[in-house]
Amino acid sequence: MNSNVESPQATLDTVKLAVALAFMLAGLGAFYIFAEVSRLYRVLGLLAAVGVAIVIAAQTVRGRALAAFASDVQVEVRKVVWPTRQETLQTTLAVFVVVFIAAIILWLLDMLLAVVIRWLMG
């Protein structure tokens, strides 16, 4: 028999995510409710609420997996060999030249087809 029993860890994670969402919504609501307060203080409060929500969400299994994924992404980005400025300019120039040549060819083909259509139509 297959029974779907939710583990206590999953329930706790759900509660943590709900609390994190509540913090974010409370911060967003406070940002608009306290419109008479300086925008700087409202933004700082909103950032604090989002920060607390992120810290709470990071304590869940999904949060830890997301943090590990972000760490792996940083490692992979460091491995990328980025082109030099000269390589980028040369590649961009080559793309412009090829696009220009293709546009000329298509324009000439369009003119040729227009002439042929006019000749066929009389």
Tally of contiguous helical segments = 4
Instruction: Give the proportion of residues in helices.
Output: over 70%
What is the total tally of β strands?
Answer: 0
Rg measurement, Å: 29 Å
Principal-axes geometry comes out as: elongated
Determine the strand fraction and express it as a percent band: under 5%
Distance between the termini: 81 Å
Describe what you observe in this structure.
This protein is mainly α and 122 residues long. The protein contains 4 helices and no strands. The N and C termini lie far apart (81 Å). The model has no long low-confidence stretch (mean pLDDT 92). It has helices at 8-33, 39-57, 61-79, 85-121. It has 2 domains: 1-80; 82-122. Helix content is 83%, strand content 0%.
Please outline what is shown here:
The chain has 122 residues and is mostly helical. It has helices spanning 8-33, 39-57, 61-79, 85-121.
List keywords for this structure.
elongated, 122 residues, mainly alpha, 2 domains
Topology diagram in text:
Blueprint: H1 8-33, H2 39-57, H3 61-79, H4 85-121
Helix pairs in contact: 1-2
